[in-house]
Amino acid sequence: MHNFKKTLKTFLVLMICIALLVGLDLALYPCTFMRNDVHTVVTQQFDDIILGTSHGMTDIDPDTMEEVTGRSGHNMCVGGEYGIDAYYLTKLIKEKQNPKRIIYEVDPGYFVTEKEEGNNYLLFYHEFPFSKAKLEYFWNSIAKCNFRTILFPWYEYSLSYEVPKVKDTFTQKVTGDYDVSHLKSDTQEYHESGFIERYPVDVTKLKKSEPKLYEEGKVNQQNMEYLQKLIELCKANDIEFVAVSTPIPIDTLRDYSDNYNAAWKYFGQFFEEQGVEYVNFNTQYFKAFTHELKAYTDYDGHMNGDAARAYSKVLAQVLESK
């Protein structure tokens, strides 16, 4: 009897701790645009899924592409999205729907760097519904993080910013509120298609900053391994895979020409060996869209909304021609 009471007390304490952690998560972990993205792709069917980094996020508008191709699409790109994230996002999507094509935006700098610990580790995983993909994702990625990332996911966010929003955050989650107006700021707005439109800036006031650069001989093998696994996953499930590198301002291409030329050569050869299409708007499709800074919001290559829509139309036309 004594052992039973002790076990029961331990169980109750454990349940209270779990309830407390869940409650804090509901109140303090912010409602990110990735929450909307994951909810959308697991509840709706799309022809095209766009994966990749912040360049894809701000440069590719699925709604504009649909006007040309007639294919529905959703943009799942975001800064900090590495190959491992794209792979498990695709596995999750495949569990819930049957996309016809994956459009993967390639930023060479992401293949010579490692994924840093922090809120980007949870940005995708945290929003996954319970699934086989989530369990595999946890084992191969999240389990290797600092234990606080697992138990206290909100600790990566500023409490001074999140605490005043507790009521709104909690309400949005418990009511299933995915209104995109919550994700609008002074500089950009999130669209239901996953596309994030950046507002135009005064380019005469922009300052140059060094982007993540590809360096020959320094490719991170895990990043390439997951890119290859993503391609194989698509082939195994009869999903078309297309790789795309979005345009970069001409000033940046000139400043780092050696790095970019080496990157284009490396990825061109890699995708050719994989037998998949690689559409590079900095090499063979250089003239298809402007590289003048006026179309961008920084020297790194993130477009303003009008330019992104114009580019998305060109991208759609190129893909249709193939």
Characterization of this structure:
About 50% of the residues lie in helices and about 10% in strands. It has about 325 residues and is α/β, with parallel strands linked by helices. It has one domain: SGNH hydrolase (Rossmann fold). This is SGNH/GDSL hydrolase family protein. InterPro entries: SGNH_hydro_sf.
- Termini Cα gap: 74 Å
- Please state the CA-atom Rg, rounded to the nearest Å: 21 Å
- The arrangement of helices and strands along the chain is HHEHHEHEHHHHHEEHEHHEH
Return the CATH topology: Rossmann fold
Largest sheet: 5 strands, parallel
Number of domains: 1
Count of β-strands = 7
User: Order of strands in the sheet with the most strands?
Assistant: 2-1-3-6-7
Give the CATH architecture. Answer: 3-Layer(aba) Sandwich
Bulk shape: globular
CATH superfamily: SGNH hydrolase
Work out the helicity level: 40-55%
Protein name: SGNH/GDSL hydrolase family protein
InterPro entries: SGNH_hydro_sf
Structure at a glance:
The chain is of the alpha/beta class. Helix content is 49%, strand content 9%. The strands form two sheets. It has a five-stranded parallel sheet, sandwiched between helices. It has a two-stranded antiparallel ribbon with strand order 4-5.
